[in-house]
Amino acid sequence: MMLPAGMDPRTPVIVGVGQVVHRSGEPGLPGPVELAAESLRRAGADSGAGARLLRDADLIAAVAPVSRPYSDLGALVAAELGADPKRTLQSVRFGGDAPQRLLNLVARSIAEGRSEIALITGAEAVASWNAASRGGIAVDWPEQPETVLPTEIIGSERAPNSEMETAAGLWGPVYFYALMETALRARLGLSEAEHLDRIGGLWSRLSELAVGNPYAWMPTERSAADLVTPTPANRAVSSPYTKLLVANLTVDQGAGLIVCGAAAADAAGVPKDRWIFPHGGATATDEWFVTERADMGASPAIAAAGSAALAEAGIGIDDVAHLDLYSCFPIAVQVAAEAFGLPIDDPGRPLSVTGGLTFAGGPGNNYALHSIATMARLLRAEPETYGLTTALGWYITKHGVGVFGARPPRSLFRAVEAEPVAARREIAPGYIGPATVEAYTVPYRKARDGGDEPEAVVISALNADGARILVRASDADTIAAFTGGDPLGAPVEIAAADKLTLL
Question: Which of 196, 220, 363, 396 is the most exposed place for a label (fewest CB within 10 A)?
Fold first, then answer.
């Protein structure tokens, strides 16, 4: 075989993709190393070159696992595969943007001639860990001393919350995303019922897509009404979210990619109809703390990274046939669609190729590696089309966008760090006085009778200067006012960080 005319031999190309899902009830309790290694074995088989590419890899990049933290997952996977890479990379412990960031670095390393054959992998085994814990079973997963470190750690370890946010109980994604969801509803001018129809319909369409995904964790079609209605099987989590509107982290899943320089892929005998090229890859970061963003329901960084990735590919969003917008919560999809100027309900161009993190599965930081692997197979079947995937970390904070296609790229790959154009909003912790409700969410807890009961209301309010204040109120009157009505845009008097009065 030979390279297409004019192609640089260092052109990065994805030549093999593999995914694995171990569903609850199936034999065994596999851990992240086993699942990651198996995904790469499948990628080797998918490439047509088998184990040769795995053994000859000079670089392994791993998405940090959450279910069993390993300081250098790539080294353990290499030992399983019989590989002896010169370098291993690993992402920081938290961040769903990691797969795209790692792919950008790997592709750039190949384009710069510092690598020829690279593996990217990640896996989670939360379902097996939980099953083992419930059954009192000791899992036989590899151990690794904390002193074993990769060649390079990728990403930022910066704490995701400000002091004001932590004090208000916004310590986890579900509460932050729910608050941002209501901020978006306010900006769109939607009633609670209209908004539930909107996000229920969006998630229902994702469930339909998961049915056709052989690697989906929960390939079951759900109606919009089923998704937004609290029931014992679909408990209220933090309004407006129920359990079936949030990412499902309790999965056993792994994914892997083999990325080569074009010359190495050709020398290995990988058929050209397996080749998928990264045409553009960009990353960007929004204002780090959510409450310091001018609009909590928007992402200038997704817009910036998307524009940069598309520009590198030399195409526009209208040229993209296949999309996968990161879908941990409905707000994430809506914000990304808005950044790209896309409708959320176009039947001809759905916003996912997998079914999303609720239905396809939300394996920790690694979901986007599954979306890229799925996208690669789809583009092989439709080689004249382009695909775009997004990845994000923390609270719509860290972003990656990739553009892919079966046709050779117009230029040698380079990763772009885009600069979003955004205004910062002032915050006013400790503010006392009049303000206006900008957004709110009601977190729920298990009640003694087995049902769900609201535990508080987290309210974002703006004072006359436009500064943002958070209040976490747990008194019965305030909870009743926000569960029994919809005080978005209502005037309030803030008396303390845990007390306000509706006027």
Answer: 220
Phi then psi dihedrals of residue 277, to 5 deg:
-100, 135
pLDDT along the chain (503 residues), means of 10: 83 98 94 98 96 96 96 98 97 97 98 98 97 93 94 94 96 95 98 98 98 97 97 96 98 98 96 97 97 98 98 98 98 98 97 98 98 98 98 97 97 95 93 98 85 94 98 97 97 97 95
Instruction: Give the residue carrying structure tokens 């151990």.
Output: 143
pLDDT of residue 241: 98
In this structure, are residues 168 and 323 in contact, taking their beta carbons and an 8 Å threshold? no
How far is residue 418's CA from residue 85's CA, in Å, rounded to a whole number? 31
Per-residue burial over 281-298, b = 16 or more CB atoms within 10 Å of its CB, e = otherwise = bbbbbbbbbbbbbebbbb
Q: What angle do CA 244, 228, 473 make, to 5 degrees?
A: 95
pLDDT at position 1 is 62
Report the chain's terminal Cα–Cα distance, integer Å. Answer: 76
Q: How far is CA 150 from the centre of its chain?
A: 23
pTM for the structure as a whole: 0.97
Closest CA to 459 of 170, 245, 223, 198: 170
Cα dihedral 116, 117, 119, 120 sign = positive
Q: Which H or E run contains 366?
A: none
The phi-psi region of residue 246 (left if phi > 0; otherwise alpha if psi is between -120 and 50; otherwise beta) is: beta
Residues in the chain: 503
C-alpha pair distances (Å), 369 with each of 99, 110, 225, 346: 5, 19, 30, 24
CB-based contact 299:336 (threshold 8 Å): yes
Distance of alpha carbon 399 from alpha carbon 301, whole angstroms: 7
Tokens 């097996």 correspond to: 128
DSSP-assigned beta bridge partners for residue 387: 322, 404
CB 255 within 8 A of CB 32: no
Q: What is the rounded CA–CA span in Å between residue 181 and residue 176?
A: 9
**What is the Cα Rg of the chain in Å?**
23
The pLDDT value recorded for residue 386 is: 98
d(CA 85, CA 78): 7
Please confirm whether the linkage preceding 240 is cis (ω < 30° from 0): yes
Per-residue CA distances from 15 to 11, 114, 227 (Å): 12, 18, 38
Amino acid residing at 182? T
Contact 275, 260 (CB under 8 A): no
* Helix, strand and coil in the chain, % to nearest 5: 35, 25, 40
In this structure, the number of other CB atoms found within 10 A of the CB of residue 184 comes to 22
24 backbone φψ class: left, alpha, beta (φ>0; ψ -120 to 50): beta
403 backbone dihedrals φ, ψ, rounded to 5°: -120, 130
